[in-house]
Design goal:
The complex is a heterodimer of chains A (177) and B (226). Chain A is an all-alpha fold. Chain A contains eight helices and no strands. In chain A, helix 7 runs antiparallel to helix 8. Classes of the chains: A mainly alpha (177), B mainly alpha (226).
Chain lengths: 177, 226
């Protein structure tokens, strides 16, 4: 059976989908998420937990931090990665993307090519991590889910996310390209 | 010109002009592993396998459609491209309608309104956090969902970005008490239906999205004419 030339394989798994199809399907699964889990989709809240678990491996302890002081935060930390739903969802995103790439035979390791890229990745990551904690979310939680939840905070986040992206673009062109 | 029947397995490989080997077997293998893991999770709790399933769905959709919030915000400025921006607006509109329906359903049944976890106080922390995030996502080449997606695609740069994303999150969690004390706790959360009523809120929101849609399209035309 020649799957590679099958029209449905090509349409569904080989070719890219349009942005609009993506928008519709993401919306669908956002709604599924709210309906089944009681909360909208969020990505970055767990990263603080991942950090806490990593910190523990080097002997650190976050139990006295205000951020982790609530009973639910403590129980999540104690239950561990494999029992944390949001951690599994993020892991799922990684594997879902990997699956899509493999099924299209497009997986390829893309290595870091320069020290500039290293700095960009580190700096960008730190800014996103810190920004998402104090901004109470990221492009998905604070912005996408926030706006969809009819919260004004989502719009405020969006405006400054956009302004930050403009500054980021200027920095990108000047220092990181 | 004689047509070569590439479906005949005996000559397929020698006439193949594809440089990459088929990864389909790996993909199918991974799919089976993901399903087995999902079934394993469901023995612990149905909730865990639900989150696993939705995660995989989000990742798959993001990768196939190349959906990227970073590109949506960066391209209009950097390249004049607006296709992703428009798609984000469409996603906002559709999801808003769905979310409003669920929340309104809760409301009229007298239940607590679901999914209010992102209806949060607006303060300087929102402004600074969003701004930092905007800079960071463009520099790193991916936002939160985009970073996870690209890790799955094999970008080692984004694996590094993810690592620092986690460090940055821990740092933010460490400083959170200060931000909360000075700004977040003094901010006000605004749930639009409280201000405009349920119908008013969704209509106004959709109108704003429609206006943004028009503005983005006009931006595109302007950039094309330059």
């Amino acid at each position: 059976m020649d799957i590679k030339n099958n029209e449905f394989y090509k349409k569904w798994f080989k070719s890219a989908w349009t942005y609009v199809v993506g928008a519709v399907l993401l919306s669908l699964f956002q709604i599924v998420t709210l309906a089944t889990t009681g909360e909208p989709w969020g990505v970055t809240a767990v990263f603080a937990n991942w950090g806490a678990w990593l910190y523990r491996t080097i002997g650190g302890n976050v139990d006295k931090w205000y951020y982790f002081s609530s009973t639910s935060a403590q129980s999540t930390l104690n239950a561990g990665f494999l029992k944390d739903p949001a951690s599994l969802r993020n892991l799922g995103i990684i594997f879902g993307a990997l699956l899509a790439t493999l099924l299209a035979s497009q997986f390829k390791v893309k290595k870091i090519k320069s020290k500039t890229q290293l700095v960009a990745a580190a700096l960008g990551g730190l800014l996103m991590g810190y920004g998402s904690r104090i901004g109470l979310g990221c492009n998905i939680g604070a912005f996408y889910s926030g706006i969809a939840s009819l919260s004004l905070s989502g719009w405020v986040f969006g405006v400054f996310l956009f302004l930050g992206a403009i500054v980021g673009s200027k920095l990108l062109v000047k220092f990181f390209m | 010109m004689r047509e070569i029947n590439t479906s005949s397995s005996s000559i397929k490989s020698s006439f193949s002009t594809r440089a990459t080997k088929s990864q389909l077997p790996f993909g199918i293998g991974l799919f089976i592993v993901l399903v087995i893991f999902g079934l394993f999770l469901s023995t612990i709790s149905g909730n865990l396998s639900l989150f696993w399933l939705t995660g995989i769905s989000f990742g798959f959709i993001l990768q196939k459609s190349r959906f990227c919030f970073t590109a949506a915000m960066r391209d209009p400025y950097l390249t004049g491209g607006t296709a992703v921006t428009i798609a984000v607006l469409i996603a906002l509109a559709i999801t808003s309608i769905g979310f409003t329906a669920i929340k309104y359903g809760d409301f009229i049944k007298g239940l607590p309104i679901s999914g209010q976890s992102y209806v949060v106080p607006i303060s300087i922390a929102t402004v600074v956090g969003a701004f930092m995030f905007g800079i960071g996502m463009v520099i790193a080449g991916g936002c939160a969902s985009g970073t996870l997606m690209r890790v799955g695609e094999g970008f080692t740069m984004l694996i590094l970005a993810l690592f620092f994303f986690v460090i940055g999150s821990l740092w933010g969690a460490h400083d959170f008490e200060w931000w909360n004390l000075n700004f977040i706790s003094k901010g006000k959360a605004v749930f639009l239906p409280d201000v405009f009523g349920w119908f008013g809120a969704i209509v106004i929101q959709l109108l704003v999205i429609a206006i943004l849609y028009i503005l983005v399209e006009k931006w595109k035309t302007r950039k094309q004419n330059q």
